[in-house]
Design a protein that fits this description.
three-stranded antiparallel β-sheet; 3 domains; five-stranded mixed β-sheet; D-Maltodextrin-Binding Protein, domain 2; 11 helices; alpha/beta; 43% helix; single chain; Arc Repressor Mutant, subunit A
Length: 298
């Protein structure tokens, strides 16, 4: 069978298996849906067994497909990595990387990426991290992004993580605040009105998630979904807010904001690079990981 097997069809098989959708596989490969369907049927004829069956509105892999993917995908990854090693990764060739991350990291990274004159023809695009762990894992599994930058440490055997940087939480108030100057006590923290920011995936306020103590209910004046709106509202009124210290320090002088130690025991916010195991030895992904780390060690 190997003498007559078109090895290019295996790339089609892996894409269809990963997406479990001919339409999505066609989009990834830059082919038409009928074209992918035809190539998949050709592969099934060559291997002599059915690889997918209809399941609801999509398709599901058969047991034959599940056994085949275990052998095929790692082999294709090794071939790709071997070719990259021969050619060497070069910024002279056009390439786009996609990174899932949060708003604070975007605000820190984007100016560094824009100011980097060594990127050549490489583009690094930042996209919002997905709303739950399952969607994040699926996005990375399906090659929709090259890596994620996360503070949650997910235990998943298909991925590895590398420490990137540490952040912390603080309290912000406008510089001309009538009651708070230079520091804030727990009593003041609870007596003031708050502009809160809820972490979507953890369904918890930032201050509650990164402090050792269990915080009492606060007097919430407004709940934001964006750090920018939180900063703006604090700078123009007498409400206070808990937020990441790195972002607060960037905008403190521009917006006339005090950055204060939070009057509780904070946990460090540990950001990590999260990458699929298949990319561990990929020269292009190694270049990307080194590049991102360089932005936080300057």
């Amino acid at each position: 069978m190997l003498n007559h097997l078109d090895l290019n069809l295996l790339k089609i098989f892996v894409a269809v298996y990963r997406h479990q959708s001919i339409t999505m596989a066609a989009e990834e490969l830059g082919l038409t849906q009928p074209g992918v369907s035809g190539l998949l049927k050709r592969l099934q004829r060559q291997v002599g067994c059915q690889l997918f069956v209809r399941s609801g509105r999509g398709i599901a892999p058969t047991q034959h497909a599940q056994e085949l993917i275990k052998q095929i995908e790692p082999a294709l990854i090794e071939i790709r990595n071997a070719l990259e090693n021969l050619e060497g990764f070069s910024t002279e060739h056009p390439r786009k990387f996609i990174i899932y991350t949060s708003e604070p990291v975007m605000m820190m990274l984007l100016p560094k990426i824009e100011a980097d004159s060594s990127l050549g023809n490489v583009r690094i695009e930042l996209q919002p991290t997905l709303s739950n762990e399952e969607k994040l894992i699926n996005g990375l599994n399906q090659h929709q992004a090259d890596m994620a930058i996360e503070f949650a440490n997910y235990a998943n055997r298909s991925f590895f993580t590398e420490e990137l940087f540490e952040d912390s939480i603080c309290v912000i108030a406008r510089k001309d605040h009538p009651r708070i100057q230079g520091s804030i006590s727990q009593e003041q923290f609870y007596s003031e009105k708050h502009i809160t920011l809820k972490l979507r995936r953890e369904d918890a306020y930032l201050a509650d998630y990164f402090t050792k103590e269990k915080l009492d209910d606060r007097n919430v004046a407004a709940e934001c979904t964006s750090l920018v709106s939180q900063l703006s509202m604090v700078s123009s009124g007498d409400c206070i807010a808990a937020m990441t210290a790195s972002i607060a320090s960037i905008f403190a002088d521009k917006l006339g904001i005090q950055v204060l130690d939070i009057p509780f025991t904070p946990y460090p916010i540990k950001y990590r690079l999260m990458v699929h195991n298949r990319e561990m030895k990929s020269p292009s992904n190694i270049w990307l990981r080194n590049k991102i780390r360089s932005y936080f060690t300057e």
